[in-house]
Amino acid sequence: MKKFFGVLRYVKGYWRYGILNISFNLLSVIFSTFSIVMVFPFLQMLFSEDNTKMEMLVRGGKNHLGFSTTEILDTIDYYLAKQTLDYGKMPVLIWICVFVVVTFFLKNLTRYMAMYFLAPIRNGVVRDIRNKIFNKSLDLSLSFYSEERKGDLMSLMTTDVNEIEWSIMSSLEMIFREPVNIVVFLGLMIALSIKLTIVSFVLLPLVGILIGRIGKSLKKNSTKGKEKMGIILSIMEETLGGLRIIKGFNAEKKISDRFKDENNQYTAIATKVFRKVDLASPLSEFLGVSVFVVILYIGGLMVLEEKSMAGAIFITYLALFSQLLPPAKSFTQAYYSVQKGLASAERIDKILNADVTIKDAVNPKSITKFEKEIEYRNVSFAYREGEIGWVLNKVNLKIEKGKTIALVGQSGSGKTTLADMLPRFYDATEGEILIDGIAIKEARIKDVRSLMGIVTQESILFNDTVFNNIAFGIENVTEAQVIEAAKIANAHEFISEMQDGYQTNIGDRGNKMSGGQRQRISIARAVLKNPPILILDEATSALDTESERLVQDALYKLMKNRTSLVIAHRLSTIQHADEIIVMQKGEIIERGTHTTLLAANNTYKKLYDLQAFV
Q1: In whole angstroms, what is the distance from residue 555 CA to residue 403 CA?
Q2: Structural contact between residues 288 and 207, judged by C-beta atoms closer than 8 angstroms
Q3: C-alpha pair distances (Å), 506 with each of 73, 389, 510, 511
Q4: 404-409 and 563-567: which strand pairing?
């Protein structure tokens, strides 16, 4: 149950509701107890055939109220006998019935109030877990996601969090109420008969052990089910994102068969889980009734043969024991649900406990502006420590303020990784990167990234309005500023032609626009941010000739008077760069201007000739 109490650490912000919940639960137990205790005097009165015993009881008097079970029952006996002699049995019977109805009403009212104050805890805790997972997913470095399936993470944030809500949070009421019920009823049972209660103590733990063994296997199967759901969501995400290729290659059947296979496996696991969960109620009820029968037999001997217990007390004991079974049964169901939910809790902990490798230093330095240069000093990088081969190997590079540096080379040569390390999407395994002499690892991450604007090959847009996409991440932006940025990015004209102009929703990933339009929106976003440093990652490689011309013109405007790091496959777009860096297998093999590199007649010249030939 360690993991369960780990989940409950989120409850600490809701102690006010928790105290009210516990208080009303205690009141519910008290009223429930009173309603059961009234069984005893009712039976005494019902089976009493003459008034002699009652007259003797009243003559004996009752001078004080004790707190032991015997004294309480004697007190009730005394006042019932007195009222019966004074008013008769029927008025007293009516009074008892009214008392039972009132106590049951109060019992259910207080139980509802306990659940009423539990609702904010249930939903609040789940909300906090969702927020924590989402915030942690933003804090984790990009290298973490290169090892994970997106579908698995989507499953974690939806299915697993919902599982905690329904399996663990919904069980809080039972877990915090039923033990109190069990303790109170057991206390009364001990007071009525120690012998019968000892028998209960011997038999009930055996029942608990059997249920516990089934619960362990339930948790294991539930974990497998969550992992399989992650695979299913991954297939769905890939399929929806790749429908054009799937249809184009007539691969519908292949994808469908793959999905069916994974879905069948998930169904088989889920069936096992449901069967074991559904076993909880009938199994606990059968075992409880078996224990009840044993108690019934032993108690019958005590009443009929040993004469060591009065019949009314035994029936009261049975009434208490019968009330012990529902909370025990509910507690068993809660245990099964918790075991199922703990599988999700463990998967969530994998994210929450994952190391945040990209984080601020203990006392980070502040960088408010860029004045001199960026320097890569002996930078080496591998995605995993100890990995054979380096993505980057001892790279040394200086980028002076106002200069445009272009990175070229074959795919996999390390260009994008080199650029991604500047805003600290990845940290150098060896060496360091400096801005104006300050190592970016020692600077505040927010400050470093505020100096940069990024335009990537794939335009990253959000399902929102054009205005909000351009103003993304920037506060207090006016419409005039957004329009000016769009004009510089050659985007104002087509935006104005949209149905709602800048307030038009662009759909999922901007699918209502062409590739060139999406890219110009991305450029407008970078223009509005007005950063001193630009990172352009193959921003025109996926566009047609006309769109490329418009986007390239927008990029030239964007790069003006800025320091730019440009990744390019089309060498024609970077001929005017101040320096061109040629990379191969994570190393810089050539550097210089377009003219000097052509004259050197080496790798760059070969790449240029290949593109010129094409």
Answers
A1: 15
A2: yes
A3: 76, 42, 5, 7
A4: parallel
What number is the average pLDDT over the span 118-137? 81
Query: Is the residue at 359 inside a domain?
Result: no
Domain range for 596 is: 373-613
Q: In what order do the strands lie in the sheet with 373-381?
A: 392-400, 373-381, 430-435, 438-439
Please tell me the predicted confidence (pLDDT) of residue 41: 61
CB atoms within 10 A of CB 172: 21
Q: Is 479 left (phi over 0), alpha (psi -120 to 50) or beta?
A: alpha
Total domains present in the chain: 2
pLDDT in tens, 64-96: 444 455 556 666 666 666 676 677 777 777 777
DSSP state of 566: E
At 63 the pLDDT is 46
Of 352, 386, 413, the one marking the end of a domain is 352
The CA dihedral of 53, 54, 58, 64, to the nearest 10 degrees, is 90
Confidence band, pLDDT 50/70/90 cuts, at residue 540:
low
Average pLDDT over residues 509-531: 82
Give the gyration radius of the chain's Cα atoms.
37
- Would 98 be classed as within a structural domain? yes
Asked whether residue 367 is assigned to any structural domain, the reply reads no
Query: From CA 342, how far away is CA 340, in angstroms rounded?
Result: 6
For CA atoms 460, 463, 469, 471, give the dihedral sign.
negative
Given a contact cutoff of 8 angstroms between Cβ atoms, the answer to whether 208 and 239 are in contact is no
Name, in order, each residue with C-beta under 8 angstroms of 395's C-beta and a sequence gap of 6 or more.
376, 378, 379, 380, 414, 418, 431, 586, 587, 588
Residues in the chain: 614
Query: What is the tens place of the pLDDT at every residue in 138-195?
Result: 787 777 776 666 667 777 777 777 777 666 665 666 666 777 777 777 777 787 778 8
Q: Is the pTM of this model over 0.85?
A: no
Place of tokens 């902990």: 349
Bridge-based pairing state of the strands 579-584 and 452-455: unpaired
Concatenating the DSSP letter of every residue in 187-234 gives HHHHHH-HHHHHHHHHHHHHHHHHHHHHHHHHHHHHHHHHHHHHHHHH
> What is the per-residue pLDDT across 560-613, written as a single tens digit (0 to 9) for each?
788 889 888 777 778 888 899 999 888 899 999 989 998 988 888 888 887 765
- From residue 582, give the alpha-carbon distance in Å to each of 62, 166, 375, 569, 592: 104, 56, 17, 11, 9
Q: Measure the CA–CA gap between 563 and 454, rounded to whole angstroms.
A: 12
Residue 162 lies in a domain: yes
Q: Which of 484, 553, 541 is nearest to 515 (CA)?
A: 541
Task: Look at residue 614 in the predicted model and tell me its pLDDT.
Answer: 45
Sheet with strand 533-537: strands edge to edge: 452-455, 533-537, 563-567, 404-409, 579-584, 587-592
Nearest to 281 by CA among 345, 214, 227: 214
400 lies in the same domain as 345? no
Tell me what pLDDT residue 16 has: 85
